[in-house]
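quick one, 232 residues, struct below
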Amino acid sequence: MVVRLRPGTCKFGAHSKCFVGHLSSAPPILQVPTKKRTFKNRSTTSGRGERREPPILTGFSITRAITNPMSMNRTGPGRQGLPHLAPLEFANQTTVIFMTMCVEKRRPLLARAEIVGLLLDCWRKADHWLVGRWVAMPDHLHLFCAPATAPATPVASWARFWRSQVTRRWPYRSERPIWQRDFFDRRLRSGESYHQKWLYLWENPIRAGIVARPEDWPHQGEMNVLAWHEAT
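---
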């Protein structure tokens, strides 16, 4: 299982080394400090009947079911929008945000090589936050991000900025507007939560019935390595 990473450029130094990742097999293992709890590995079965192992975070047990962020990204009567709270900061703990955003009217616009290239370029230029692992589905997008400045720019402002840049540079005028007005974001509280969300991203193409194995989906990668550190 090999992960080929091509070094990119980043002005924030060695602590935020950039990558444009191609996941040629299972994604890389996220290493998290062990806290005397054991992780029970969970095997799944691919559409080809083969047993495969999901990527793992060591040191944590997965006990809670993941909440589906897509169900939270909908607005309805009496709901004005989703809250975008400033992330709380804890000593020595990583700040990582999980984000989900959808295309207006859920049109399948994103899963194209030229559009993915546009997203990557806009993320590089919107450098107040660093994008980690991401998956672009036809009608929605998932990503992890972490602040690159202190104090951190509000994540909602950052997201609206690069989304506006994507819309402005969108190559097909007839497809605008691109994004739903609101989006979902959540601060990760633990390495366990990080692992759960990454499993959700990695297996998204399987749940959509697009591919038999997660590694077969081409529109995913890792721009920056967002390592997890627990609060001390």
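Strands lie at 3-7, 19-23, 44-45, 51-52, 97-102, 129-136, 140-147, 184-187, 220-222.
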